[in-house]
Amino acid sequence: MKEEMPNSPIPVFDVNHPPIEFRELIEDVMENFEQGVPANSKRARDADLAVYTAWGKNVYGTYFKAIPSSPEHIEKFLNDMSAEVTETSSTKNINGEMVDTTTKHRLKALSTIERYLASLSYKNKLYLDAIMDITKNYQLSSGFVNPTSVRRVKATLKKIRALYRDNSQKQAQPFSLDLIEDVISLHDGSLRDKLEITLLSFAFDTMMRCSELVRVNVEDLSFDPTFRDGIVELHWSKTDQDGKGQTRYLSSQTVKLLKDYLQATNINSGLLFRSIGKNNKQLEAMHKDRVGIIFKRLGRRLSKFYSDNSVNNILSKSKIVPTEISAHSTRVAAAQALALNGASTVQLMNEGGWKSAVMPARYSRHADTKKGAMAQLHKRARAT
Q: Which of 248, 327, 254, 251 is nearest to 286 (CA)?
């Protein structure tokens, strides 16, 4: 006769108010469940939870409990994050006088607020999974409602989206290929210039994000001597944190710049793009935030060149450098250029490393407008 194993006592408690002795265990189980989650995803969700926790303690006091969340708390959090903020800054006018300028904006971007909510949804679901694992009561989920999905929170998010609808988020303006070619023509031959124009051209061709650009190694490059172009292996990206890998195309212009840059810097292995410090000292790496700073500086230089030459050069007079240049400007420009050239949404997703069609569609909507019925009408009219 088989001996029956004694049943382990199953803890029973209110899901929203677990006993103190179980809280540490719940946190340990939640941590264990995230072992296979990509480090960047976990870090981002933890950072979002930290924002929510800090906000709650500031509003409700040190005893604020972030997880499990309260729908009422989440509602107020969303409203506070979307509040209108007024800022005053002092700038000089054309007469050299200091003038106060007042600007209004929302505390957080809509995409940031939506990300906060997604992170809270994930953390609350993880919390329930941990409790079910501890109690062995896998029916708990049928009686548990994620606080981020209740009607109160959904209605609040809908209202907030309406607030932002009339003031669409600023999209990074494109650093187009013709502007890039003009920047390249202006370079002074310095080591810093070689780095910056190579980075700009490389970023356009590959459509890489700044976090991806600064991770590229020399060993990832391969050049084709016949066609003078090349390929770069992308071993990690924001949407490929498991390292499955992708390849991106390099134009003959970018390959030429790369070879000149590598020869000038004597970089033979390791990280491809490395910041240039004081006294032309080459650093060991480049921070991702430096990419946007470089692109903005190149944009200002080009804008000054066009302004200085507009009197004698009709071409310079007709060109305008975008004012909202960022690290994403090359991705936007490349997406628009590809869309104008007939690339499909799937092709855009592959070239830019997007998992969803949302961002390619947003980036290429201006190009789509230029291919629309009204644009075609005027093109035919000009041709006759």
A: 327
